[in-house]
Automatic annotation (TrEMBL):
PANTHER family: LARGE RIBOSOMAL SUBUNIT PROTEIN UL18, RIBOSOMAL PROTEIN L5-RELATED. It comes from uncultured korarchaeote. This is one of the proteins that bind and probably mediate the attachment of the 5S RNA into the large ribosomal subunit, where it forms part of the central protuberance. Part of the 50S ribosomal subunit. Contacts the 5S and 23S rRNAs. The gene is rpl18. GO terms for molecular function: 5S rRNA binding; structural constituent of ribosome. This is Large ribosomal subunit protein uL18.
Length: 197
């Protein structure tokens, strides 16, 4: 660490790689509720957060583990279909709490076209929340429904059964076929729509 007068210590959360304060300030100046989507190694978490001087207020929080607990979704809880449905549930809950408009806050995550964060954004948009986001970054519905996962599972089952059993062990242990993810997704989305209107 330098001792010269030109050296300036950054804020702690910036040093830890948690907050980009310049981006955060631009988001807060909009005055809108922030749509915050974060991914971990196991789950997708979607939140609607309002700014407060004493600390941010989380108005709505939905994690993808609710898909397994409430809806018996035995596929991955961190893939595109899970992210979309989590965003959809969060969007419906936000509408019930009076949040009709939000702005996307991706934090320090990379903004890649068609990734899980944008799948969650598309879920919230389809739920009825106004979120300004370019159509070109949102994933297509065939990927959101898991068609690419089904085709990969079929290919892997033919070419490398050992790797197939390893990659989809959780789904197979529940007596499900990984290639049926599209039909399971469609059933799940209908259940969610009937639950949340």
């Amino acid at each position: 660490m330098s001792k010269q007068s030109r050296y300036k210590v950054r804020f702690r959360r910036r040093r830890e790689g948690k907050t980009d304060y310049r981006r955060r300030l631009r988001l807060l100046l909009s005055g809108k509720t922030r749509f915050v989507a974060r991914k971990t190694n196991r789950y997708i978490t979607v939140q609607f957060i309002d700014y407060s001087e004493k600390g941010d207020i989380t108005r709505v929080c939905v994690s993808s583990h609710v898909l397994r607990k409430k809806y018996n979704w035995y596929y991955s809880l961190k893939n595109l279909p899970a992210a979309y449905i989590t965003g959809y549930i969060a969007g419906k809950k936000a509408l019930k709490k009076g949040i009709s408009e939000a702005i996307v806050d991706i934090g320090l995550q990379a903004s890649t076209r068609g990734n899980r964060i944008y799948a969650a954004v598309k879920g919230a948009i389809d739920a009825g929340v106004k979120i300004k986001c370019g159509e070109e970054v949102l994933p297509p519905m065939e990927r959101i429904s898991g068609a690419h996962i089904a085709s990969y599972a079929k290919l892997l089952k033919e070419k490398n059964p050992d790797l197939y059993n390893e990659r989809f062990s959780n789904v197979i242990s529940q007596g499900k076929d990984p290639a049926d993810i599209v039909s399971e997704f469609n059933k799940l989305i209908e259940k969610v729509k009937s639950d949340y209107g």
